[in-house]
Amino acid sequence: MSASAPLRSVLPPEIMARKGGAPLVVLTAYTTPVARLVDPHCDIALVGDSVGMVLHGMPSTIGVTLEMMILHGRAVMRGLSKAMAVIDMPFGSYEESPEQAFRNAARLMAETGAPSVKLEGGVHMAETIAFLTARGVPVMAHVGLTPQSINTLGGYKVVGREGEAARVMADARACEAAGAFSIVLEKVPVGLAGEITRALKIPTIGIGAGADCDGQVLVVDDMLGLFTDFRPKFVKRYAELGMLADEAIASYAAEVRARTFPAPEHGFADKVKS
Ligand code: KIV
Prior knowledge:
By secondary structure, the chain is α/β, with parallel strands linked by helices.
């Protein structure tokens, strides 16, 4: 997959135009098979840096590299025919300077074929967002809880209560003014998320931010219930695939031990019948 991939039907201007319209449906995807499942139902497939925790067992998103995002971005692009891909810029790939951000965003776009990137940060990233958008890089911003900053935030907390509300609003406004085409609000209190959504002209996409946002995003593995031990309050489980997988693997193990699998129908005859 490269930048020579055909233009996809959904592109950032269309996402912007959805402000106030039908809610935007967003899920993460990190692999081709999951991208194929997400594609018919979603407007956006987010190749989130949550891939580090979800698929690679990392303790946070801090260790995710540009190479990982390119690898998973390519895999997802192979599975999409309709939904738009957004690829996360990983920690350390954009914060240093607008030039560093452009260099790495250009690699993400050129080496995967994805038409947009996402980065975390508000007021302090506005200059970078403006630099990127002026140079052909559509940017989805991400404010509120920004997981790449957990070490300064002190954990995966709700961000924007009481004294913090004005700062989160200022962050969101700065991203919009800098040219972001949409913005993720993560773990922002419901009332504030509604206020931000009404104040901005670009779509807000909530995760743990209530129903007033212009769209919703979840980590696909969370909503499918692939983790049996991870239940954040803001995730609704639409399936319990982790439990189903556990039962299936236990049955397989029992049958192998009892020599009831493979059965005759799973084998190949020594001679082909003529
Ligand atoms: O990395 C990710 O999956 C994200 C979403 C949770 C918004 O940034």
